[in-house]
């Protein structure tokens, strides 16, 4: 099955389970053709097809509850219950029981592709080694979340300097047209419940484009001016991971989003909640990611790659029964295995992207 057939088959599988927005799918297809990195972000369904063929020696690695669609733009900031700024993985749409090596290889491939587009002065091999070093250290030490207060000053400075400007962030929302129909009553109620209790005015609900892997699914944001400032809550439709689609696992129906974040070494976002198959969360300027292209120095990039490797370990450590097995497997792997696997999967991804762009 080539990338064209795989995309049609996967989208047909999606349509059997949830409504899709055709205009958003067309936009997704266009963005997939722009360059290899957006293509990778949008095609986890294709990754799970290629992974066992290209990396058979890793397909049987110890299984953890992994992120699945992991890449360098899958990390961001949020505020905890104490108002502290936290950094870590912020997207668990494709979480599934997977070999731990899958997340590492996909993160390494994304770094390789993203750096070539956004930070060509940084050596991708050094970035991959930094990811591996961070993962080993984090896993070996039992993990530790990234609280950007007394510690991780360099990451806090990067996050504060790149937080979206509220003066620019909210006007973009206000430019979106108000939805008059098509909003499920249960979702309206969930969004209203997620807002502060003393919000009495009806919130304006809009549809926004965000991400790539989930582009095409329903996504609603409630926007309201409250106590002299704007606030927003979002509802995003979820589905079981594409990992189960590739394996024709028709019995997989459980959304594992909350389980993954609940068992990980993590400081939770108090505004994140899964209701049935919808993710409810807060939207705000301080819920943002640090983009590689914005980092001026190679040393900053390598520090960030190391942190991403560590944070990946924080998630995998949530599968407590697998900890010893993962450490044993890591120690038995030959040196530079992540480099070689990332090179092979990057090559296959580039070939698929060229075929997609040509089509």
Report on this structure:
With 359 residues, the chain is of the alpha+beta class. The chain contains 14 helices and ten strands. The protein has a five-stranded antiparallel beta sheet, sandwiched between helices. It has a three-stranded antiparallel beta sheet with strand order 2-3-5. Strand 7 (219-226) and strand 8 (229-237) form a beta hairpin. The protein starts with a helix and ends with a helix.
In short:
The chain has 359 residues and is α+β, with helices and mostly antiparallel strands.
Q: Write down the secondary-structure element order.
A: HHHHEEEEHHEHHHEEEHHEEHHH
What is the number of helices? 14
Termini separation: 15 Å
Count every beta strand, where a strand is a DSSP E run of 2 or more residues.
Answer: 10
Main sheet, how many strands, which sense, barrel?
A: 5 strands, antiparallel
What strand line-up does the widest sheet have? 6-7-8-10-9
Structural class: alpha+beta
Unreliable spans are: none
Provide the helix percentage: 40-55%
Shape: globular
Task: Summarize model confidence as the mean pLDDT.
Answer: 91
Relative strand content: 5-15%
Give the C-alpha Rg. Answer: 20 Å
């Amino acid at each position: 099955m080539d990338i064209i057939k795989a995309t049609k088959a996967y989208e047909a599988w999606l349509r059997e389970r949830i409504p899709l927005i055709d205009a958003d799918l067309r936009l997704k297809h266009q963005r997939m053709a722009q360059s290899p990195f957006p293509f990778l972000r949008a095609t986890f369904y294709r990754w799970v097809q290629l992974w066992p063929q290209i990396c058979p020696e890793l397909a049987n690695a110890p299984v953890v509850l992994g992120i699945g669609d992991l890449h360098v733009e899958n990390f961001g900031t949020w505020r905890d219950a104490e108002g502290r700024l936290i950094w870590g993985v912020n997207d668990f749409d494709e979480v599934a029981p997977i070999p731990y090596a899958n997340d590492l290889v996909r993160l390494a491939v994304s770094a390789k592709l993203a750096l070539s587009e956004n930070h060509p002065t940084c050596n991708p091999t050094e970035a991959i080694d930094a990811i591996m070093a961070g993962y080993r250290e984090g896993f070996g030490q039992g993990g530790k979340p990234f609280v950007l207060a007394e510690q991780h000053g360099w990451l806090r400075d990067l996050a504060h300097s790149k937080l979206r400007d509220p003066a620019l962030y909210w006007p973009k929302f206000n430019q979106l047209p108000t939805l008059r129909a098509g909003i499920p009553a249960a979702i309206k109620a969930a969004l209203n419940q997620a807002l502060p209790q003393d919000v009495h005015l009806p919130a304006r609900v809009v549809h926004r484009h965000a991400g790539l892997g989930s582009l095409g699914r329903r996504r609603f944001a409630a926007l309201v001016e409250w106590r002299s400032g704007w606030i927003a809550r979002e509802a995003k439709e979820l589905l079981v991971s594409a990992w189960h689609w590739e394996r024709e696992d028709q019995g997989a129906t459980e959304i594992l989003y909350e389980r993954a974040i609940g068992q990980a070494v993590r400081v939770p976002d108090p505004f994140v909640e899964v209701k049935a198959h919808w993710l409810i969360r807060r939207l705000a300027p301080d819920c943002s990611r640090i983009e590689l292209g914005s980092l001026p120095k190679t040393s900053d990039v390598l520090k960030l790659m190391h942190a991403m490797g560590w944070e990946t370990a924080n998630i995998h450590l949530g599968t407590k029964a697998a900890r010893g097995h993962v450490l044993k497997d890591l120690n038995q792997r030959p040196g530079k295995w992540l480099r070689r696997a990332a090179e092979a999967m990057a090559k296959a991804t580039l070939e698929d992207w060229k075929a997609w762009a040509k089509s």
